[in-house]
Amino acid sequence: MINNKSGLRKARVKIESAASVYARRKRWRFQRSLVFIVFGLFLLSTYLIFHFWGNELLGFITDPERVRAFVANNPLTSRLFFIVIIFIQVILAFFPGEAFEIGAGYAFGGLEGALISIVGILLASVLIFKAVRRFGRPVVELFFTPEQIDSVKFLQNPKNVTLLTFIIFLIPGTPKDILTYLAGLTPITMKSWIVITTLGRLPSVITSTVGGSLLNSEKYLPAVIVFLLTAFLAFFGVMIYKRVNRQSDKSKGTEPF
After folding, report:
1. What residues does each domain of the chain span?
2. CA–CA separation, 151 and 255 (whole Å)
3. How do residues 42-62 score in pLDDT, each as one tens digit?
4. CB-based burial of residue 31 (10 Å sphere; 0-12 exposed, 13-18 middle, 19+ buried)?
């Protein structure tokens, strides 16, 4: 009789576990489908814009004088546009932010372009942090697979997580998109997160906006040097990030998300 009850409990646990896995996979498929639909709409709108206004837009972008004149004539609209674009980029997490930061530097100069970029990044990062803190891991799984989430080991160790995250953000080339979504699952406070997502991101943002500013000034050789230096730092940044993750994976105290 006891064996039968024990067998029933084990069978019930297996059924519940299977149902949980099935529900998670179903939710994940729905979320990924939703993301792909949004991504497809973005690609379609981009194609239509370039199909109808591509030549004019390209001519505008490649003419520094026209860009400067447009910014001077539309001081508020142009800045709000870039803030919104960078905000969307951080939320969607599909596209590399460097391209938009270079564009901000090209349009507004190195310093102001960096400030505009940081405003967009900060607004999006705070929204993501609050959403993940409120709704949990399913928000992260909208954009990243469970394997990608679980691979970020250093955030799963609460010891020194705030300081370590700040250092990782300072280094160009580290995967800040997924880290932005995972931060809400850690003990990092909102105040600390604001510092991390502003001061921590500043070095990589400035290198991009300064490069864009140099392009606008038609100083192509210095711009190339800045981009090559950034790529060099990013390469070592990726190596450092992987090493930190490996060490965190071996250390004790890791708590899965």
Report:
1. 1-61, 63-250
2. 12
3. 778 777 766 666 666 666 666
4. middle
Alpha-carbon distances of 124 from 121, 128, 133, 223, 235, rounded to whole Å: 5, 6, 14, 28, 26
- As a whole number of Å, the end-to-end CA separation of the chain is 39
pLDDT in tens, the chain (257 residues): 545 555 555 545 445 456 566 666 666 676 667 667 777 777 787 777 666 666 666 666 667 788 788 888 888 988 999 999 899 889 987 777 888 899 999 999 999 999 999 999 999 999 999 999 999 888 898 888 888 888 888 888 777 889 999 999 998 888 899 999 999 999 999 999 999 999 999 999 999 999 999 998 989 999 999 999 999 988 888 888 888 888 876 665 566 66
pTM: 0.79
Residues in the chain: 257
